[in-house]
Every structure is written in C-alpha cells, then in structure tokens.
Design goal:
NADP binding, gluconate utilization, EC 1.1.1.44, phosphogluconate dehydrogenase (decarboxylating) activity, Single alpha-helices involved in coiled-coils or other helix-helix interfaces, 3 domains, alpha/beta, 7% strand, binds 6-phosphogluconic acid
Length: 482
C-alpha cells in the first residue's frame, strides 16, 4: 500500500505532525536530508507505527499515492526553493507540494505561480501551536492552489485542533499566499498579546510591588474571565515556576527579547498597505528596545530613573489593569483584522474573517475564548470594518475606557513603559475622532511643497493650492498619494 502523504524535514515540528497524521490513520512517508535522522526517527518515536522512511527524494516520490502530497517542514527561505527545484523533475502534473513553514507570503505567491506553469499545485500553510500543537492538534491555515485543497483537506482537518463544538481549526484560507499571510497576522497578534501581558506584569511587579505568587494568582483569576487564553494560562505557570534556589526563574532570564521576523513582516506589510497597525508594530519595537540592554542600563543611571511606585488600592488597580489589557487586546485584533481586510481586497483573496477566527480558536498560540466572540461578530456582519463596532466588543470598550485611561495615565506619570496599552488607547481616541488635526498637516504640506489640499466645503477629489506667503508661485505639485 502506498503512502497518503510524504513529509520532508524531521525536526520536532515535522516529526510531531507525522505522528499526528499516523494517529489519524494516514500512512506517512518520512524523509530527511540527513539519512541518519530518518533511521533515528523510525527506531525512536515512530517505532511500532505505520510510518515508513524514504532515504532519497526519488524513493519518497515512488512510495506515494497519486496525486502525490508532499509537505515540506523545513526552514523557510532558500531551503524550500531548493527542495522544490529537486522535487519538480520527479513529480507528475497534478501532484501537490505543501510548505508548512513560517514563510513570508510573497514567497508563497511566487511559488504558487511558478509551479502552476509546470502543472504542480502548491499550498503554503501556516501551522501554529508549537511542538505540542503539531503532535496533538495544531491550527492549520492553508492557501495557494485551490485545486489541491480537496486532496489535502481530509488529512489536515483530521489532524488539526477542534473547537468545543468539534469544528476543525483548519479551513481553506484563499488563493496564493493567503494562508501564510493569515499565519503572519496570527504571529503579529501573538507579539501584541505577549507584549500586553508583559506590560501588565511590569505594572504589577514594579508599580504595585507584587510578589510572583500574587501575580500568578492574578493571572489564574484573569484566565477565568474574557481574557481566558493560552498565553494568559502559560504566564501564570511561568510566574509560579521556581528555580533550583526557590526563587522565581523568570527574574533570572535576561530581558532581551528574540524574534524570528513574522511580527516585523506584519508591521512592514501594514506600512505598505497604509493600515494603522499600531499595537503590533509597537510590540515589535518593544522587542527591539529590549535588545538595547547595555544602552538601557547606562541610560537608567544617566537619567537617575526613580522607582515607579503606584499608590492606591491594589485590588482596584488590578481590576483596572485587567480592563486595560482586555480593551487593548480588542484594539489589537481589530487592527489585525483591518490589515487582513485590506490585503484581501488588494489581492482578491476573499478572506472569510469568521473562518479565520475559528481557525485560531484552538490549537494555535493565540487561542482564546475571545475568538468565539470575534467569529460571532463576523457572522453578524461579514464586512465589519472595525471589530470594536460590534456590539459585544463596543460594550467592553465603553465599559473599560475609564479604567484603561487611569492605567495609561498612571504608567506615564510614574514612568512604567506601556507602549502597547497606551498606543491602543491613542488609536481608539483617533479612530473615534471625526476631525483630526490633519487639516493643519495638509496646510503645512501645501505651505512648503505646494502639495495641495482638499476643502471641507468642496467635493472630495478637488485639490487646491494657496500661495501662503505671497512669495511662492501658483504652481502646485502633483497630488498622488502613496
Ligand atoms: C506558532 C508560533 C511560531 C513562532 C514562534 C516564535 O504559531 O506556533 O507563532 O510559529 O515561530 O512563536 O516566534 P518569534 O521567535 O518571532 O517570537
């Protein structure tokens, strides 16, 4: 009997996905560039299963049922191209290559188009959930050649996480790089969620002087509220974790954040498309700032920074912080969905936002109860332009604004950096202001560069130039917008 699917790449994610597929009754052929890895896997975790090995790409191809489905679980970038180049001559028209790595979506756009010319289908799929997700149910976000989806769908939906209603956290996202785009936004949101949690932690630790056990209890309680999520849950575990000397391990970890690039891509993409994705972008910059450790240590001394003590009733502050975190999180998701909406329109992807929320409901790093509410919001209005306008989310934003402002103001007053929580509030203030000061900005542009402006008392699209100083000419510059 031939194999149902081949997987190339036996690092931890690849191995776990294979074992997951095997658990669901699929016959998997496993290949790795280094042959010993295949043997180690077959004699180790795969022992006693139906998984078979392939020691060359030709052997892999020969052992697979047609149309062949070959999933690459290798490092994103050139390695993917190199495997594609080697596989294509061995494949038949109609065969399917799947890239399950964290690929930047323009690469997937390119590969789908290039392989289409050769008659090979290509799927670029986000896979989220880390090692455990891959093994027992990840969130899977596939996009690319739609013709390939019916062949891959049963396998992917079987191995994916399921919601409480047993719906698979995997569905077709859209053409081209749509799957990898949605995974990129997932990761951007992951950056935002993580940053928000760390800001709440710093406010509690430095401002309120709370112990790790106290903070752990707060996160345990928060996890019983609308904030219920995987990241809040693991944060409570981390805060309770003691090093061998009985002290909290988290305080022994160097405060410089790493990043592999997906958050940065999300920010770059938002800038390219002109979407105010402020919270995620602040979260990326917060990681960049954290990496300037030596400079920060020097500057703290240079500026003689004082301890940032927050006075007042601790319980009142903790509840205010919870509300600020929740409201900021709504803004972050609202911005992320704005970005997806713009990308969908620009690329003709026809994204289904309710389905995206469903795919993120389980298995992935940002999984949370909150995503069910997002799905409901898009069920009510599939074209919702701002998530915060949905009645459920609008209610939360309105109820928490006062507490949120207090937390933001206090953090500014005492000097606790909370870039994401404060930028989220600033965003909402901007978004809900009918008249912003951009009129003055337009006047400045026109003053120094004759860039022209539109008038509130004239139809949009009609441009005016004023000779502000009496010295400039009447010739205006072109009025294109980038
Ligand atoms: C996931 C994660 C994963 C990502 C890590 C690390 O969905 O399982 O998003 O894909 O690689 O979270 O990302 P950073 O190194 O950029 O923090």
């Amino acid at each position: 009997m031939k194999g149902d699917i081949g997987v190339i790449g036996l690092a931890v994610m690849g191995q776990n996905l294979i074992l997951n597929m095997n658990d669901h009754g699929y016959k998997v052929v496993a290949h790795n560039r280094t042959a010993e890895k295949v043997d180690e896997f077959l004699q180790g975790p795969a022992k006693g299963t139906d998984i078979v090995g392939a020691y060359s790409l030709q052997e892999l191809v020969d052992k697979l049922e047609s149309p062949r489905k070959i999933m690459l679980m290798v490092r994103a970038g050139d390695v993917v191209d190199s495997f594609i180049d080697k596989l294509v001559p061995l494949l038949d028209k109609g065969d399917i290559i799947i890239d399950g790595g964290n690929t930047n979506f323009p690469d997937t756009n390119r590969r789908v188009a290039a392989l289409k010319e050769k008659g090979i289908h290509f799927i670029g799929s986000g896979v989220s959930g880390g090692e455990e997700g891959a093994r027992f149910g990840p969130s899977i976000m596939p996009g690319g050649s739609p013709e390939a989806w019916p062949f891959v769908k049963p396998i992917f939906q079987a191995i994916s996480a399921k919601t409480e209603n047993n719906e698979p956290c995997c569905d077709w996202v859209g053409n081209d790089g749509a799957g990898h785009f949605v995974k990129m936004v997932h990761n951007g949101i992951e950056y935002g969620d993580m940053q928000l949690i760390t800001e709440a932690y710093q406010f509690m630790k430095d401002g309120l002087g709370m112990t790790h056990d106290e903070m752990q209890s707060v996160f345990i309680e928060w996890n019983k509220t609308e904030l219920n999520s995987y990241l809040v849950e693991i944060t409570s575990d981390i805060l309770g974790y003691k090093d061998t000397d009985g002290e909290p391990l988290v305080e022994k970890i160097l405060d410089t954040a790493g990043q592999k690039g997906t958050g940065k891509w999300t920010g770059i993409n938002a800038l390219d498309m002109g979407i105010p994705l402020t919270l995620i972008t602040e979260s990326v910059f917060a990681r960049c700032l954290s990496s300037l450790k030596d400079q920060r240590v020097e500057a703290e001394e240079l500026f003689g920074k004082k301890k940032s003590i927050v006075e007042g009733d601790k319980q009142v502050w903790i509840e205010a912080l919870r509300q600020a975190l929740l409201a900021s999180k709504i803004i972050s998701y609202a911005q992320g969905f704005m970005l997806m909406r713009e990308a969908s329109n620009e690329n003709g992807w026809d994204l289904n936002y309710g389905n995206v929320a469903l795919m993120w409901r389980g298995g992935c790093i940002i999984r949370s109860a909150f995503l069910s509410n997002i799905r409901d919001a898009y069920d009510i209005d599939p074209e919702l332009s701002f998530l915060g306008s949905d009645s459920y989310f609008k209610g939360i934003l309105e109820n928490s604004t006062s507490a949120w402002r207090k937390v933001a103001a206090k953090s500014m007053e005492v000097g606790i950096p909370m870039p994401s929580m404060t930028s989220a509030l600033t965003f909402l203030d901007g978004y809900t202001t009918a008249r912003l000061p951009a009129n003055l900005l337009q006047a400045q542009r026109d003053y120094f560069g004759a860039h022209t402006y539109e008038r509130v008392d004239k139809p949009k699209g009609e441009f005016f130039h004023t000779n502000w100083t009496g010295k400039g000419g009447d010739v205006s510059s072109t009025t294109y917008n980038s």
